[in-house]
Design brief:
The chain has 16 helices and 13 strands. With 565 residues, it is α+β, with helices and mostly antiparallel strands. The strands form three sheets. Strands 1, 2, 3, 4, 5, 6 and 7 form a seven-stranded mixed sheet that branches. A hairpin with a 4-residue loop joins strand 11 and strand 12. The chain is globular and about 80 Å long. The model has no long low-confidence stretch (mean pLDDT 94).
């Protein structure tokens, strides 16, 4: 389960695109690193360059990146390198990209950490670029790499171009490396109901940031306007952080607008889709769908699904699966061929390497049967989390029904926000359902450790303490999370669809049951802890949560009861 994990992507470019033996040795370093997944290897013969993509949790990604850079340093000789692509090092660039649950500032810090290690341990000149750049003139990779490998020796002697890490020393075999932090780049093609490349180009020029050349008189064939330095003056397009051209795709028999969105935080994919569609409409052309090239973060589809639901004035508080389905259909991502999110979304690809959640994937009857078996887990902790998830789900259901209630059109957004809140609480409790059983298993594993020697006894004792503390924290988190759903149940009872007021009341009762059940698990686990100070603190907090919840849910129950009598 990747829920909540920080995920970054790394896209190093190695100055070797012809010798697969060298390429395979470099990528083997990545494959051998636990916690990362190699997503793509794209060698180019003419550029003599290979673009590698992998992702995972930050520390694992940094380790894999360092190992790959080190291996490239050993195998690639830049003094013999020839290729069509600009380059100045064996590992030419190594950008880190935020994918999930991580800020750009955090990624910048990781880029600095990686750059410093490369400079210190490998002795390579390291330049930071894009968001990681320490000065504006180094933000643009083209500036950092200007002069390329052939001009690097002179550049390193320039006081203005001293590396950020590593020695200001020219290494003929290795060159230098640019380590950066950048936002995710999405390559997307828009399918048009025309075969005209000229019209596709016109739409591309309408939207791309660079725009189109300014012309005198006739905007198509008029003389291009230049500034006093002889540079072409451009009329900017409507979408920042985009590059686009028009082309004809023989395979499909249609023209497309081919676009790179270089920063999806500036121009999200769904905004670009709508803008291209509108510019096409103004030219009598229709966008029939879109084709995403390569991989994307899950947020691209989640954000798009919410965007298109909001345009319909429908609740966005639905499951991730539903949001992804809405995104695919709204942008026609399956227009030319099936779109399989499991093989296009980075988080889903990474999750394939993780053990499948045992309990979450069960049917209701399977879960009940597993609970009823002679196995001690799942037990009361998992059941408490599940009951809490059902309580949050009921409150979410009332919010969604209220959002779509005829005659309440002016309230749809308010209830949509409530439904989104409920979905988050429900999803967290579902994860805690699985985690509670995992915590129990950790305790059992700790008790199963050998205890023959004094050292083994100490190790076992510490493992039991840590596992028991964790087994206490999980039901405590269940209590806190279920508590968050009670105000939502109260609100839905008070202002939600009156036909569903009993559902809001049942939701509140489920949440209280979850809190009471989880409290019992806190009590039984906390008794085995040696750290009594920590135990007393968490028990005090848990007791307060229980008391507050009992009072709140009793009030909700009385309110609902009076309304439906």
């Amino acid at each position: 389960m990747l829920t909540g994990k920080k995920i970054i992507e790394c896209v190093p470019n190695f100055s070797e695109g012809r010798d697969m033996n060298i390429i395979n040795q470099i990528t083997a370093e990545i494959k051998s690193t636990e916690g990362v997944k190699l997503l793509d290897v794209d060698p180019g013969a003419s550029t003599n360059r290979t673009v590698v993509t992998f992702a995972g949790e930050p520390d694992a990604v940094l380790e894999a990146a360092f190992k790959a850079v080190k291996k490239a340093t050993e195998l690639i000789d830049m003094s013999k390198h020839k290729g069509a692509h600009p380059r100045f090092g064996a590992t030419d660039v190594c950008p880190l990209v935020p994918v999930a649950n991580i800020t750009m500032q955090e990624v910048i810090e990781y880029a600095n950490k990686l750059g410093k290690r490369i400079g210190d341990e490998l002795g390579i000149p390291v330049y930071l670029y894009e968001f990681a750049a320490k000065s504006e003139d180094r933000r643009n990779l083209a500036n950092v790499r200007a002069g390329e490998y052939e001009g690097l020796e002179k550049k390193l002697k320039d006081p203005l171009w001293q590396p950020d890490f590593g020695p200001a020393k020219f290494l003929p075999k290795t060159g230098a490396i640019a380590v950066g932090a950048r936002n995710f780049l999405v390559a997307i093609n828009y399918n048009l109901n025309t075969t005209s490349v000229r019209r596709a180009n016109a739409i591309a020029f309408d939207v791309r940031e660079k725009g189109r050349p300014m012309r005198k008189g006739n905007p198509i064939i008029g003389e291009i306007v230049k500034d006093e330095n002889g540079n072409t003056i451009y009329i900017p397009g409507t979408l920042k952080a985009t590059k686009a051209i028009g082309w004809f795709i023989e395979e499909y028999g249609i023209a497309q607008v081919s676009m790179n969105i270089t920063d999806i935080s500036v121009t999200p994919v769904h905004i670009a889709f709508d803008e291209v569609s509108e510019k096409a409409r103004l030219r009598g052309i229709r966008v029939t769908g879109a084709e995403i090239v390569g991989l994307i973060p899950k947020s691209v589809l989640i954000d798009a699904g919410k965007y298109f639901l909001k345009k319909q004035q429908r609740s966005t508080g639905v499951s991730e699966d539903e949001l992804i389905k809405i995104a695919i259909k709204s942008m026609g991502l399956d227009d030319l061929k099936p779109f399989d999110a499991q093989n296009k979304v980075i988080e889903f690809l990474l999750a394939k390497d993780e053990p499948a959640p045992k309990l979450i994937n069960m049917t209701m009857s399977e879960f009940a049967n597993e609970t009823a078996s002679e196995s001690p887990a799942p037990g009361g902790g998992s059941i408490s989390a599940y009951v809490g998830a059902l309580g949050a789900a009921l409150a979410t259901m009332v919010a969604n029904l209220s959002s779509h209630k005829p005659g309440w059109d002016d309230k749809w957004e308010e209830f949509s926000n409530f439904a989104e809140e409920g979905q988050k609480i429900k999803d967290e409790l579902v994860q805690l359902l699985e985690e509670d059983t995992n915590a129990f298993n950790k305790v059992m594993d700790a008790f199963g450790l050998p205890k023959d020697t004094d050292e083994q006894k100490n190790i076992r004792r510490q493992a039991i303490e840590e596992a028991t503390r964790y087994a206490t924290e999980i039901p405590y988190r269940t209590m806190k999370t279920a508590t968050m759903a009670i105000p939502l149940c109260k609100k839905m009872a008070e202002i939600g669809n009156p036909n569903s007021i009993s559902d809001a009341g049942v939701g509140a009762i489920c949440c209280l049951t979850a809190i009471k059940g989880a409290y019992l698990n806190v009590l039984i686990n906390v008794a085995g802890l040696k750290d009594k100070s920590w135990a007393d603190n968490i028990l005090s907090d848990a007791s307060h949560l229980l008391e507050t919840a009992q009072n709140d849910v009793e009030a909700i129950y009385d309110f609902v009861l009076n309304k439906i009598k």
